[in-house]
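Customer escalation, tier 2.

The customer says the design service returned an amino acid string that "doesn't look like it belongs to this structure." They asked us to rerun it and document both sides in this ticket. The original structure tokens are below, unchanged.
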């Protein structure tokens, strides 16, 4: 069950958004039973009136190592910032932020995958070696959030055709894909190449 739990104004370096928090499971109250890890929380960053068609949209999966700790092994923080900038420039759009660390395998396993990459595997080989799929993410929650916000169709900021397919299977109308590459560095160039070659990301 997905429930809209809280909603407030949020000034950011990219502009002023509305932050909307969604919870899975029993929404609960603000008492002790609702504190801690009893619920999984996901976020929508909303600018302007997003009800209706043609909404600029990014569906973004959490990346603690990059977005909080500043890791240069991937381009997640840069993609997050670029998406918020693009939405702010347009004045209308939504970024759905899902808790799906490491393409769905979790933080601890992502760090285990890092060690395997240091030993010579690429990002896909590392996930497979740990017994996971190359990409374990689901987009059903993103679809539920977009539906709750009144979004009728999206212009999706992604290089990943599988993300479009996942959203469409979940009932989201995708009008178009908008390329969303950010600059590569010496630390993530091989990772980005693997996404193109093995995960089908668009050039």
């Amino acid at each position: 069950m997905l429930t809209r739990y809280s909603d407030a104004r949020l000034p950011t370096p990219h502009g002023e958004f509305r932050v909307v928090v969604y919870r899975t499971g029993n929404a609960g109250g603000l008492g002790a039973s609702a504190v801690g890890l009893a619920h999984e929380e996901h976020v929508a960053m909303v600018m302007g009136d997003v009800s209706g068609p043609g909404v600029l949209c990014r569906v973004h999966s959490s990346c603690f190592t990059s977005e909080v700790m500043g890791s240069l092994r991937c381009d997640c923080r840069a993609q997050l910032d670029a998406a918020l900038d693009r939405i702010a420039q347009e004045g209308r759009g939504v970024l759905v932020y899902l808790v799906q660390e490491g393409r769905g395998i979790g933080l601890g396993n992502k760090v285990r995958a890092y060690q395997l990459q240091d030993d010579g595997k690429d990002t896909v080989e590392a996930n497979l070696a740990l017994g996971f799929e190359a990409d374990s993410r689901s987009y059903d929650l993103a679809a539920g959030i977009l539906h709750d916000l009144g979004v009728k169709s999206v212009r999706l900021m992604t290089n990943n055709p599988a993300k479009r397919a996942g959203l469409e299977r979940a009932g989201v109308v995708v009008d178009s894909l908008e390329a969303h590459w950010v600059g590569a560095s010496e630390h993530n160039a091989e990772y980005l190449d693997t996404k193109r070659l093995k995960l089908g990301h668009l050039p």
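Tier 2 assessment: The sequence is consistent with the input. The beta strands are 2-12, 15-24, 41-47, 55-61, 93-98, 154-157, 174-178. The chain is about 35% helix and 25% strand. Sent an explanation to the customer and offered a walkthrough call.
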